[in-house]
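Researcher: I'd like a structural prediction for the single chain below. Treat it as a standalone chain; there are no partners to consider.
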Amino acid sequence: SGPPYPHLDENVRLIKMPNLDLYHPDHLFRPEKMSDLAVPLNMYEFLNVCTGSFPEPFTFGERVYSYLKKHSKDYDIVHDNQCLSYGIGRLAQKVMPTLPTIHHPITVDRQEDYKVAKTIRQKFRVYRWYSFINMQLKVARQFSHIITVSEFTKKDIAKEFSLDENKFRVVHNGINNEFFYPKQNGPRPENSLIVTNSADTPLKGLNFLLEAVAEIRKKQPVKLTVIGQPKKDGIIENLVAKLGVSDVVSFTGRIDNEEFADYYAKSTIAVVPSLYEGFGIPAAEAMACGVPLISTSGGALPEVVGDAGIIVPPADAKALAKAIEHLLQSPEERRKYAQAGLVRVNSVFSWKKAAQEVAEVYREAIHGYRRSS
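Model: Treating it as a single chain, here is the predicted structure.
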């Protein structure tokens, strides 16, 4: 991993791949030591960050390739996240068994961000930031096996990347029951909604939920808790003010994993208003906490929710409002969905099941690589 380095279990070894760490608050957008720029790859990284690009996937891949080319005998297989660099593709072609997980086609994020960009300058910045996508499209074609997290995403990625669906193996994400479980804090409140959301990311659809809340409050009491934090003077913060819902909408900011169960226990309904999800972890987490769920049909969400929640069309504030009003007034239906969600998560979305399925894909990829070598 490159910085910021992940916090791992003590039994997991971390091989650090240092870079310029240009987003570190102590030396934002400048190298800690100017002498680091004498290395051509570092200079490339620095110049691209300074011009609004996102070079880290490429430079990380080059560093990983150099390391693993020297140490390939120490490992059986490389499992990469998102296949965003040519270096990872070269590993698959020349060095050792390598496979990626692609969570969803990032082309969808680019399309939505491009729609929201209003000025030519903003549109150029979107285009520049997502310039790594062309690299991903080329690299993805170099793997014999690709893991993805839903059947829906498999079809979408295959279409967007012009790939054969037979390359893909679907392994659903798991949910950590250490943090996401039904916590009993007495009776649930009657009119409290909760959403876990990257607030200013257009694809997450929070604006439509805020519009729905503004409509619902005209008819009955309602409160919305957003696990997340909007940007200062950003789209969501301005919309909250415009709709006049600041008195019934609260943002938690970043919270610890241990706090999620408490927040869900204080909620009547969980809502996932996303326009698109490659999987939809917030939906599964809400179900794991025993909270009745309303979700859009964006992307793979119906595949995750199944019959354990109410599904409405994406980007439709009126449909969201209607579903929320209905479920707020139907305690028996809420109990039914809460129980169905628990059963579904525990039977379908466990990390043990995911690990077993990933291990089987590893065996396939290693066997296939040896046969072709």
